[in-house]
Amino acid sequence: MQTSTTLTDQRREYLQSDQEFDLLFPRSMQRFSARHWTPLNIARLASDYLTAVPGKKILDIGSGIGKFCLAGASYAPTCRFYGIEQRGYMIDYAQTAAESLGLLNVSFLQGNFAHLDFRDFDHFYFFNSFYEHLEEEGRIDKKITFSPDLYEQYVGQLRRLLNTMPVGTRIATYHSSHEEIPLNYRLVDTLESGNLNFWIKREG
Fold first, then answer.
1. CA 103 – CA 7 distance, rounded (Å)
2. What is the sign of the dihedral through the CA atoms of 26, 46, 5 and 15?
3. Which of 59, 93, 149, 176 has an alpha carbon within 20 to 30 A of 155's alpha carbon?
């Protein structure tokens, strides 16, 4: 049985680099890392913004193999991270990685984000998981339905759900077109050559 000290040391080793972190997953998933999984430096910046207040619940919309949630949960142990992902096998990989890292503040849900009650969460992370519907070359697999119409539908659904959230809700977007951001969210900061953006819902 691993001690908490051993788990902490092991977690630190995996967080040293993206290459080390990718070893938590099968090679079939590692090859998608550069394109589809959040880099650790981005995960650190985004999670720092979203977890400025302890005890918050963070939802990753389209969490894939769970890299952002796993890294964020490691960086911010006083907050809880949730990932929603349609592909069941990716949920399995994410849960296995969470167990390997000894993380108790992260959970993964299989399904469509539109079926969630966003009011169960406080803040959100979005690494343009809808883009697969527009670019066939970058698709991970063919296990879900793709179409430009679904892209537009999902963008509209996400915008409406974010609009229901209270003032002060925070969003971190990475490589997003910002179509999903309601007009009553203010851009707080932009980093990484404009690819990483931080938002907060304002009054009115």
1. 9
2. positive
3. 93
What is the reported pLDDT for 7?
A: 57
Instruction: Give me the residue label for tokens 């759900």.
Output: 161
Distance of CA 147 to the CA centre of its chain: 22
Average pLDDT value for residue range 181-192: 97
Q: Rounded mean pLDDT of the chain? A: 90
Question: 88-101 vs 4-14: helix axis angle to the nearest 10?
Answer: 120
**Contacts (Cβ under 8 Å, ≥6 apart) of 14:** 20, 21, 23, 24, 101
Identity of residue 99: E
CA distance 56 to 202: 18
Q: Cα 110 vs. chain centroid, distance in angstroms?
A: 14
How much is the pTM?
0.90
